[in-house]
Amino acid sequence: MADLIGLSTQIVDSGRADQPVNRTTGELSEIAPGLAMVESFSHVVTWDSGDGLVCFDTSHYNTGQQVVDSIRTWSSSPFAALVYTHGHADHVGGSAAFAANSAALGHNAPRVIGHKNVQRRFDRYRYTDSWNRLINARQFGGIRGDLDGIMNDLRPAAGGARPTRFIPDETLDTTDVVDKFASMKFGDTTVEFHHGRGETDDHLWSWFPEQKWVATGDFVIWNFPNAGNPQKVQRWPLEWAHALRAISAKEPELLLPAHGLPIAGKERIARVLDEIAGALEYLVKNVVEMMNAGETLDTIVHAVRVPEATLGKPYLRPLYDEPEFVVRNIWRQFGGWWDGAPSRLKPAPDAHLAHEIATLAGGAEVLISRAKDLADAGELRLACHLVDFAGWAAPDDPDIHTARAEIYEMRRQQEASLMSKGIFKSAVRESESVVKAALGER
């Protein structure tokens, strides 16, 4: 077993992440007596309640069995309950493996607990199945999002019956509950389930009042908060900060995230939560102030920056999402989709605009030539605009698309966040497919 608490203490206290913090080893580590974590994609926190195992999340469809096998090296007790911190595929996809293990051992099927909005999320996943496959493949840099098994279990059975493997059979609606949480007893222990919006609208964080433990799900991910994902539905940065403040107010002594390392110590946890919440509040405050002053999205995106010292924190590095994307999500939440440029309210098709620009410049080749000069000078943002115009103006030209692929590969290598790298790599593959098609015709 790894000493995860020792590792996180060293990293938080030193302020240096000199080794991986988001580990996916599939290995189980005991965090406290009766409490363990399997590091996976995402983690599964497992608690022995004295009346069966309560598991917070189930990891992904592809890793659920590995997680179950790891848990079974630690305990043979029945799975009493599966608690969904939220309904993302990497948190609920492994549920079938837990159900299968229960059946194989002759145990009762575990209760499945989640917020009421989990069901609505699953309904949306069914409705936008193909779209989700496409964006997950792009986001993860060419690794096709394997949703087949998950979506099969979400599709209605014959006769319209509801699927059972991933649907919470105990849904919590905290909006009408005093202080917006619900309590349940497992054995002799009470657990509080608190709802908060952040990365999702179906998120629960779980509080153990007696032990001072908190299972935070994705409210803490050891990266800059995933509050701006450019391909996904609305995130709520300010509400995310509010949830972190509410967690901190409980004064937890052990924090159990769904990604990254567990953190121990009341003061240490408070500092981490405060810094994450503060980064989100800083962005919201600055964006909304500029919106109130009548600034356009273009101005705001290029003006609002999180201090580099903040982004250097081991749990705030922009290696997955990044602040620039969060700025756009804040605009979308408070200001709608129009960016403030009149021509983009009802714009011409990209291809038509690109053709006009290429004609004015003297051809798509001129745009590409200038893009190469800009890229060599380190002006990759400008260069990418020009290669897109060139590619749209000459959609079947292999020379144009060879250059476009090269420049987007340069751009990808300059980026830190997985989301930027994935989207820019998709542009590379897009142009490479044009080149291959053209060469195949010769």
UniProtKB/TrEMBL annotation:
> What would you give as a GO molecular function for this chain, any one?
protein dimerization activity
What InterPro entries does the database record attribute to this sequence? Alkyl/aryl-sulf_dimr_sf, Alkyl_sulf_dimr, Bact_Alkyl/Aryl-Sulfatase, Metallo-B-lactamas, RibonucZ/Hydroxyglut_hydro
Q: Where does the record place the Metallo-beta-lactamase domain?
A: 38-259
SUPFAM superfamilies per record: Metallo-hydrolase/oxidoreductase
Supply the Gene3D superfamilies for this chain.
Answer: Alkyl sulfatase, dimerisation domain, Metallo-beta-lactamase domain
Listed name of the protein: Unannotated protein
